[in-house]
TrEMBL record:
Gene3D superfamilies: Ribonuclease Inhibitor (3.80.10.10). Pfam families: LRR_6. This is NACHT, LRR and PYD domains-containing protein 3-like. Keywords: Cytoplasm, Repeat. It is found in: Cytoplasm.
Length: 240
C-alpha cells in the first residue's frame, strides 16, 4: 500500500509540474521577469494553484497587482496566499478576490496580512459570504497602526448592522482608509446610523463611501444628506 501511495503522490506532483499555473509561476520567479500586474480572473482556478502563487509573492518584488476574481479559491486557497502576502519580500499593492467562494474562515489570515504588509493599499472582497463575523476579524487588522489599506470593497458580503459598530471604529481609527464599498448588504437604518457616527468623526479620512440605493428610511436618507453638508469632502455614492 505504501508503494502505491508513493506512486500516486509522485503522479500528482508530476501533474502539478505540468499545470499551466505552475509553469507560469516558474516563469514569474525568473530574476529577469519584471511583471507588475497579473490578472487571472475567471480562469477556473482552485486552491491547488495558491501555493504556487504564494511562492511568487514571496520571491519577486516587482508584482504590485494581482487579480484573482471569479475563481473558486476558497478559504484554504486564500490562507495559502496569505503566507506569501506576509513575506517581507512581497510588495503587492492591489489584491482582487471578488467572488472567490470565501467565508469568515479566511478573515483572520487576511487580518494578519493587513497589519503585516507595508504595501497593500487595495483589497477587493466583494461577492463573498464573509458575514458579520468575518468583517469583525478584518476590522481588527484594519485598526492596527501598521495597516496601510486605502480601498476596501465589501459589496454583497452578507453583512448586517451587527458589523457596523466594528466598521465605524475603523473609520474613527484608520488614518489611511479612503474608500469603502458596502453596497448590496442588509445594513438597515441602525447600521447606517452607526456608520454615519464614524464618518462624522474628526479623525475619519474617508473620501468615497458606497451604499445600496434602497432599503433605508427617510430619516436615514436625511442623516446621509446632512452628512454630505457637514463633510463636503466625502462622496456618498449609491449602487442598485
Amino acid at each position: 500500500v505504501s508503494i502505491t501511495d508513493d506512486v500516486v503522490r509522485e503522479k500528482k506532483q508530476e501533474e502539478v509540474k505540468q499545470s499551466p499555473i505552475y509553469l507560469l509561476c516558474q516563469s514569474l520567479k525568473n530574476p529577469s521577469c519584471g511583471l507588475k500586474t497579473l490578472r487571472l480572473e475567471w480562469c477556473c482556478l482552485t486552491a491547488a494553484c495558491c501555493e504556487d502563487l504564494a511562492s511568487v509573492l514571496s520571491t519577486i518584488q516587482t508584482l504590485t497587482e494581482l487579480r484573482l476574481c471569479g475563481n473558486a479559491l476558497g478559504d484554504h486557497g486564500v490562507r495559502l496566499l496569505c503566507k506569501g502576502l506576509k513575506h517581507p519580500i512581497c510588495r503587492l499593492q492591489k489584491l482582487g478576490l471578488w467572488g472567490c467562494s470565501l467565508t469568515d474562515a479566511c478573515c483572520g489570515d487576511l487580518a494578519a496580512v493587513l497589519h503585516t504588509s507595508q504595501t497593500l493599499l487595495e483589497l477587493g472582497l466583494s461577492a463573498n459570504a464573509l458575514g458579520d463575523a468575518g468583517v469583525h476579524m478584518l476590522c481588527e487588522g484594519l485598526k492596527h497602526p501598521a495597516c496601510r489599506l486605502q480601498r476596501l470593497g465589501l459589496w454583497g458580503c452578507s453583512l448586517t448592522d451587527a458589523c457596523c459598530g466594528d466598521l465605524a471604529a475603523v473609520l474613527r481609527t484608520s488614518q489611511t482608509l479612503l474608500e469603502l464599498g458596502l453596497g448590496a448588504n442588509a445594513l438597515g437604518d441602525a447600521g447606517v446610523h452607526m456608520l454615519c457616527e464614524g464618518l462624522k468623526h474628526p479623525a475619519c479620512q474617508l473620501k468615497e463611501f458606497r451604499l445600496s440605493k434602497y432599503g433605508f428610511s427617510e430619516e436615514t436618507r436625511r442623516e446621509l444628506a446632512h452628512l454630505r453638508k457637514i463633510k463636503p469632502s466625502l462622496n456618498i455614492g449609491y449602487i442598485f
